[in-house]
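Board notes (copied after class):
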Amino acid sequence: MNRVRLENWFNRIWYSDIRPPWWLLPFSWLYCGVVYARQLARRLGLLKVVYPGVATIVVGNLTVGGTGKTPFVIALSRLLSVDGLRVGIVTRGYGGDARDWPCEVTTDSDPLKYGDEAVLLAGSTGVPVYAGPDRLAAARALLAEHSIDVLISDDGLQHTRLGRDIEIVMIDPERSFGNGICLPAGPLREPLSRLEDIDATVALGMHPAAKFQFAAAPGEAINLATPARRLPLKDFAGKPCHAVTGIANPERFFRMLKEQGLQPDTRCFEDHHAFNAADIRFDDDSAVLMTAKDAVKCRKFANSNDWYVPLELHPDPAFKHWLLEILKRKTNLG
């Protein structure tokens, strides 16, 4: 069973009415036990927590898979920057094969070396971005080279060694928390009780458990070969086209295109797939559309038929007020 089939098998168990196999449940109980033990050890001071020395916001998931966290981190960085705050981002660099971590990542960095999400964050925000499995080490490396006011940790919720002032959990508005069971019988990285300790929950859409909702909509399609060339998605409606992606929830991207009137021929790969030219080539000259995360790995061999569709977020108006108030209350900012 290859990785894509294995992921599909787990997704059917996690996000449907199918009962998980009985033999997976003991592993979930063991997993939950380890999580609870770590949480208790942290509360008792047995696990060291180190604060980086600047206001720190951690954005993460309780579930495995895509929840819109990367677009949200981009929007959060822009929101804080517009308010005059200097922002830095640390991220895992998942999928990167760099030998030495942490690393500073720029828009021109190799996504196969430093991770597609890290390169996307750098190119979309213009703020310092450092990647590495050890978030604390990445934070220290960033602060050694850049003076910032706010540090955002992308997907660092379970990396508890990094001290944080604010925790934000992203919720998938469509798949929610699945069957509510911890890994591997369910999609939860931590039990749902963890939400009691979170400062805020955010969904890119409507969800009853989300404190804030961000409206999400596709932006204009941007040509990979000539980024200055942009077209409304409606221009692709009624024409043959292809949609290619390697993200955790490809159906969300395909559905978004169909809601705009497109009827693409679809091709999906595993999350963080290392694209090559053949992956996005077809036997015709029709447009090929992909996500922004896919685009950073395809731009080197892109041609004039290749486009990416950025996701534009429109924050809940109450979110910015809440964020600035909690930053003032929990840190020295303001």
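Comment from the instructor: The chain has two domains: 46-215+315-330, 220-309. The chain has a mean pLDDT of 94.
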